[in-house]
Structure formats: C-alpha cells, structure tokens
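Bumping my old thread because nobody answered last time. Still need a sequence for this structure:
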C-alpha cells in the first residue's frame, strides 16, 4: 500500500542481520533483512506507541467513540479521531493491494494520510487498512473490521510485511509507493515495467494506476490512463482530461468522501513515504550498531562511522538535493495545499517548512517538514546530533560539494532561521 544499505558485516550476519551491499556504503537503498525479533529491535514484541495504539486505548477507556455510518462505515469517524484531513484523499485504481479483487478503475481505493498515519478504504470492503508510524519501531500495520461494534479495535497485521519489509522499503517495516502500467481492469502490466517513486523520480514515471486531479500543465505523467499492450505501453485514450479538476464522470463516486485525488497530496505523500523509511532505518542502524559495540562485536569507531554515513544520506533527502524539477506551475484541486501549509509551525516572519513553491520545486523552503515528526525526535541522541551537524555543514556552506549548488544562499539562510525558531534545540551544539 503504501529502500538503507550497508556493506556486509560479519558480526551482523552472525547475529542474524544480513546486509546486502548496494551502490555505495552511504546509500541507504539496500536490504536490511534481519530477525526483527532480535534485540535491540524487538519489532514484533515491543509494545507500540504509535497513533493507532493510542487510539485503541482511548476507545477502550471510553474517551473516543467511533461512529459507524453507511456506506463508508467508520471511515469518516476514524479520520476525525486521527486528525487526518479528507483533503488528503488519493485514489488508486491499480490492483496493488491485498484487496485487489475489489479494486478497479470504477472502484478505486481511497488513501488518506497525515504526518504519521496512512489509511486505506475500499468501497464494498470489510476492513479499513492502516499503516501507522511508531516513533521507534517503524511502520506498524493494522486492520479495522468495518462493521458495527460496541468498542471497535484495530488489530495488528504483520502479514503486510511480506511486501512492506524489503529492498523497496530500505529493509525495514515501511511504506511502499508504486507507479505501474494498469490494464483496463486495473491489473498491473508488470511486463511493461514498474516504478517505485518519491520526490527524486521523473514526473513522467509517476502515478501510473492512480487518478490525478489538479493541474500540472503540459507535463506528462502516467496517471489517469489505462494501457492495452505491455510491449507498447501507450495509454488507451482516457476518459479524463490530462488535468481534470475532479473524478466526477469517471466512475460512480457514491460513498466516497471526496471527488478528488489531489496532485499536491500525491507529491507530498511520495516525499513522506521514503522519509518515514529513512528515519526508521537510521534509528535501527544506530541502535543496532551501539548494541554490537556493547557486545564487542564491532570496532570502537563503528558507531561513529555509521553515524556519519547515515546522516549524509538522510540529510541529502531532507534537503531535496536530488529532487526532480517541476516544469511549470502545479495546482491542486481539493484544498490540500492550503490545509497542509496552515499547520506550521511558523517563525516570526510567518515562514514554515510546510509552505509550497509548486512552480520549480515542491517546497518553498527545501527542508523536510518531517524534521518535526515524532520519529525524528525518537532517533538515538547520537543520530539526531549527527543529522543536525550534517545539516549545519551543508546549510552553512562548510560542505562545498557542487551537488548542493541548487540550495541558494537565500534558501540556506531561510531554512536555518526557520529551524532555529521552530526547533530550537536542533543546532544547540553549533552555538555552544
């Protein structure tokens, strides 16, 4: 539904953690396929502290009552309880979910999200699917029976890890976002190719199997289209225009909370999915490296080396260093951009990392708003400090690598000022 690499290290293999080398040591796109129950990870056994675990407790305590109403069941009530905006709705019609048999271009799956939770609903389905980011453990997967109950409870569903713990999720339980060439019934034509997308992906590879509403000008993408021949993947003429305002007229929208699959929401979602995975992986890397050091299984400088390497990779992603440029103005259709930007936090000049550019790039100030997330704050202290140090090296101009040239002096100054005002302890060591 919804990639942290290392070279192979014998001490880790002996402990059951198998690391495959990817492009380079500092590339976090390899495979972390390990025994998730091994200390200090304890993924299956450690009590989760994510938003869904907290909501379950509030329901049992009588503090929250979910309301069931047809045809969407608990959907609207759950969105309200989790503070997930309806404007975030995205519609995917490719058969890329375990509810695939119910999904097609006439009955797409609705996805909604905020900074920590993604929720899926399929019209006519029996459940709500939820992926919720635990600050320490990574993404926890749940389902909720979408039928009336006195005190409905979300049930953990680790079967989702069959797809959601792989090379594509940087080897940790995480998010997975794909663009495919869908046939007329939504079945992916894998012979034609498939793309895992984030903000670095060329626009022309994005959103295959998704409805896309809003305006991207003349820029081509794979959304809103069906395909007939995997050997010649040219779209069958879609019923929707290239830049439709809504999905009205494409299918019967009865039961859906919104007629939009907002392009800005899709772009934010793409960025956020990989950011979540990277935060989880950095936390796991450093926790396990410290554990190995304590067990005398690695050299004393191993943790320090991993801190430098993981910080470099995550900071490049946070600063949108390899972001695919936009070719013209992007405009959403649902109001998501306004709702998202209004959340702040803001500095005294009214600036925020959640404000959009949407002409040449996604964000006005190119630094990820996920730096405010619970997952960032839950990183081991050494990892947070290492990321802050690396951010300062890039933003202050200490690192003169040409790849950072796209960050203008105005960009760097604004990001530093915003962070110093809204995340006051981030650069504390740089000013002591």
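Sorry it took so long. Here it is:
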């Amino acid at each position: 539904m919804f990639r942290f690499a290392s070279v192979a290290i014998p001490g880790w293999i002996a402990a059951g953690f198998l690391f495959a080398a990817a492009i380079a040591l500092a590339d976090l796109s390899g495979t972390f396929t390990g025994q998730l129950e091994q200390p200090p990870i304890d993924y299956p056994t450690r009590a989760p502290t994510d938003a869904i675990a907290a909501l379950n407790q509030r329901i049992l305590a009588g503090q929250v009552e979910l309301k069931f109403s047809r045809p969407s069941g608990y959907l609207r009530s759950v969105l309200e309880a989790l503070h997930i905006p309806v404007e975030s709705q995205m519609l995917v019609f490719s058969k890329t979910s375990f509810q695939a048999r119910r999904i097609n271009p006439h009955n797409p799956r609705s996805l909604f999200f905020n900074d920590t939770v993604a929720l899926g609903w399929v019209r006519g389905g029996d459940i709500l699917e939820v992926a919720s980011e635990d600050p320490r453990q990574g993404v926890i997967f749940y389902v909720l029976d979408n039928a009336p109950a006195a005190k409905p409870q979300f049930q953990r569903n680790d079967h989702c890890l069959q797809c959601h713990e792989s090379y594509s999720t940087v080897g940790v339980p995480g998010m997975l976002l794909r663009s495919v060439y869908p046939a007329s019934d939504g079945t992916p034509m894998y012979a034609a190719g498939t793309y895992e997308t984030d903000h670095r992906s060329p626009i022309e590879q994005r959103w295959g199997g998704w409805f896309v509403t809003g305006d991207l000008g003349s820029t081509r993408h794979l959304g809103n289209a069906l395909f007939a021949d995997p050997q010649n993947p040219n779209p069958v003429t879609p019923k929707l225009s290239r830049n439709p305002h809504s999905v009205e007229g494409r299918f019967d929208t009865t039961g859906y909370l919104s007629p939009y699959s907002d392009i800005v929401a899709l772009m934010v979602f793409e960025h956020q999915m990989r950011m979540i995975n990277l935060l989880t992986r950095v936390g796991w890397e450093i926790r396990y490296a410290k554990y190995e050091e304590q067990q005398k299984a690695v050299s004393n400088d191993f943790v320090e080396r991993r801190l430098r390497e993981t910080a470099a990779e995550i900071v490049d992603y946070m600063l949108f260093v390899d972001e695919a440029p936009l070719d013209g103005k992007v405009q959403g259709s649902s109001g998501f951009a306004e709702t998202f930007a209004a959340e702040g936090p803001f500095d005294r000049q009214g600036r925020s990392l959640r404000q959009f550019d949407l002409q040449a790039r996604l964000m006005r100030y190119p630094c990820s708003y996920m730096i405010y997330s619970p997952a960032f704050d839950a990183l081991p202290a050494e990892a947070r400090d290492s990321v802050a140090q690396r951010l300062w090296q890039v933003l202050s101009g200490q690192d003169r690598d040409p790849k950072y040239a796209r960050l203008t002096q105005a960009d760097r100054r604004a990001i530093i000022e915003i962070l110093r005002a809204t995340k006051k302890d981030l650069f504390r060591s740089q000013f002591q």
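Residues 144 and 152 are 7 Å apart (CA to CA). Let me know if any region looks off to you.
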